[in-house]
Automatic annotation (TrEMBL), chain A:
It comes from the Bacteria. SUPFAM superfamilies: Nucleotide-diphospho-sugar transferases (SSF53448), Trimeric LpxA-like enzymes (SSF51161). It is an enzyme of class 2 (transferase). One of its GO terms (molecular function) is glucose-1-phosphate adenylyltransferase activity. This is Glucose-1-phosphate adenylyltransferase. It comes from candidate division WOR-3 bacterium. Alpha-D-glucose 1-phosphate binds at Y98, G163, E178, K179. The keyword Manganese does not apply. The gene is glgC. Residues 8-263 form the Nucleotidyl transferase domain.
Automatic annotation (TrEMBL), chain B:
The keyword Transcription applies. This is Response regulator. It comes from candidate division WOR-3 bacterium. Signal peptide: none annotated. The modification 4-aspartylphosphate is found at D53. Keywords: DNA-binding, Phosphoprotein, Transcription, Transcription regulation, Two-component regulatory system. One of its GO terms (molecular function) is DNA binding. GO terms for biological process: phosphorelay signal transduction system. InterPro entries: Bact_response_regulator, CheY-like_superfamily, Sig_transdc_resp-reg_receiver. The keyword DNA-binding applies. Residues 4-116 form the Response regulatory domain.
Length: 392, 117
């Protein structure tokens, strides 16, 4: 079954709302929980599902993403197992970047042509969730659908920022509205709405025709949610929803980035089992010794990655990435510290995200963030760009 | 007003034959002898129809088609190839018609009339 499926992972998003974390890297390459990158989740899902023809469609600032894929995801031997590789925008049909999600796929029709899969699975590279796509694929094939999208059960009050859908008893999609002010309730439980997760599987032949039509349309923004799905419904294509009620987070803003990281520190709500041997979440692990928590340290409810040193400091509810050094009497609370940062003696950090390669000796950067030219999120969290505080 | 047709074809004999026939039907015909020339002319002028050969040196008709589609004009497109096998190429589905080159020009004229009148 998996042999006839080609997977496209859309990994070209600029992630403007995640700036400055996306200043030097594409959104899917943003580090997550200290040791992962956002893309690791969707890649793990695909590989654990048994998919073996996986192409990442990249464009902006893909260097760090490419390096991560080479280091951590060089799993397959082409002839024997299949492939997983990043494909930068080829600009084959003109000098332009991808205009929308549908355009990203359209511009890679050449790849589809070469491969001629029966079905095309389209995933987003910037969501955190765990899903075995096998069940989605099974339903899609069983229903002989032209297009199947994953519908999430989402609290109705928060559904307005998504595409929402209505389905009939057979799960066939009867209506699809992008960002409605009053999201329609899910019939089986009115507290929820069904929202579009941006996970699609389509019959290749159908989707190619639809995408070419869409490419020719001047009025289209070339987006699956805004243009392609509504049009397919109105033209009577067989579109079904696969309802998913597991953990799914879309890392849209710096605050949702922060909160999604912290979902994993929360004991009561374990969103994804990261230790499941049957469904491992893979990443690249550099060869490093275990974290060293030294004398006089106080560490509570935190993730401390390999190669880090806590030299008599206090670390509470925080995520510490590899090769971080936290010096004596420093205090780090509710914070995410990226790789190779040094937190100097007596520095006090709270509600802050610090990108890689920062050497912080200023004790008051959280209180006086403005003075240091730092960014603040909507919910008043401080963000420090990569290498902002240089080693003096 | 007379309709404008862009003819992209690298074989001189076919080019002049089609040009004569189409002009005698009252169309204005612009010729391009390579794919690159075809794309350039398409970008910088307005046409009602493009008749496109596939096997051409340098830039083949499939790539020309991709670039033409990318320009998002309402122009109709006929692929006119000696080979039926290209019909199976995904991108050719973006054309409005696919004709197999034959000795008779009647089929072509009929299709042109059907598409642009």
């Amino acid at each position: 079954m998996m042999k006839n499926i080609l997977t496209f992972i859309l990994a070209g998003g600029k992630g403007v709302r995640l700036y400055p974390l996306t200043k030097n890297r594409a959104k899917p390459a943003v580090p997550f929980m200290g040791v992962y990158r956002i893309i690791d989740f969707v890649l793990s899902n695909a590989v654990n599902t048994g998919l073996r023809k996986i192409v990442l469609l990249t464009q902006y600032l893909s260097l760090s993403l490419d390096r991560h894929i080479r280091q951590g995801w060089d799993l397959f031997k082409y002839d024997v197992d299949g492939y997983l590789y990043p494909l930068p925008a080829q600009q084959r049909y003109g000098e332009r970047w991808y205009e929308g999600t549908a355009d990203a796929v359209y511009q890679n029709i050449y790849t589809l042509q070469m491969e001629r899969p029966e079905h095309l699975l389209i995933l987003s590279g910037d969501h955190i969730y765990k899903m075995d796509y096998k069940f989605l694929i099974e339903q899609h094939i069983k229903k002989d659908a032209d297009f199947t999208l994953v519908a999430l059960l989402y609290p109705r009050s928060e559904s307005s920022r998504f595409g929402t859908l209505e389905i009939n008893r057979e799960n066939r999609v009867t209506a699809f509205i992008e960002k409605p002010s009053n999201p329609p309730p899910y019939k089986k439980d009115e507290r929820f709405s069904l929202v579009n997760a941006g996970i699609y599987i389509a019959k290749t032949e159908t989707i190619v025709k639809v995408l070419i039509e869409d490419a020719k349309n001047n009025y289209s923004s070339h987006d699956f949610g805004k243009d392609v799905i509504p049009k397919m419904i109105s033209e009577g294509y067989k579109i079904y929803a696969y309802v998913f009620d597991g953990y799914w987070k879309d890392i849209g803003t710096l605050d949702s980035y922060f909160e999604t990281n912290f979902d994993f520190l929360n004991d009561e709500e374990k969103p994804i089992n990261l230790k499941d041997p049957d469904f491992p979440i893979r990443t690249y692990f550099p060869p490093l010794p275990p974290a060293h928590i030294k004398k006089g340290s106080d560490v509570l409810n935190s993730y401390i990655a390999n190669g880090s040193e806590i030299n008599g400091a206090r670390v509470i509810n925080s995520i510490i990435s590899p090769l971080v050094k936290i010096e004596k009497n420093a205090s780090v609370e509710n914070s995410i510290i990226f790789e190779r940062c040094v937190i100097g003696e007596g520095v006090r950090l709270k509600n802050i995200i610090i990108d890689k390669d920062n050497f912080i000796k200023e004790v008051d950067i959280c209180e006086n963030w403005k003075k240091y030219g730092l960014d603040l999120t909507e919910k008043n969290r401080v963000v420090v760009a990569k290498g902002w505080f240089k080693n003096a | 007003m007379a309709k404008r047709i862009l003819l992209v074809e690298d074989e001189e004999d076919i080019l002049s034959l089609y040009k004569d026939v189409l002009e005698s039907e009252g169309y204005i015909v612009e010729c391009a002898r390579t794919g690159i020339e075809g794309v350039e002319k398409f970008k910088h002028s307005e046409f009602d129809l493009v008749i496109l050969d596939i096997r051409m040196p340098q830039m083949d008709g499939i790539e020309v088609l991709g670039r033409i589609l990318n320009e998002k004009k309402d122009t109709k497109i006929i692929i006119n190839s000696a080979y039926g096998s290209y019909k199976d190429n995904f991108l050719t589905w973006g054309a409005d018609a696919y004709l197999i080159k034959s000795s008779s020009t009647e089929t072509l004229i009929n299709k042109v009339k059907e598409l642009i009148g």
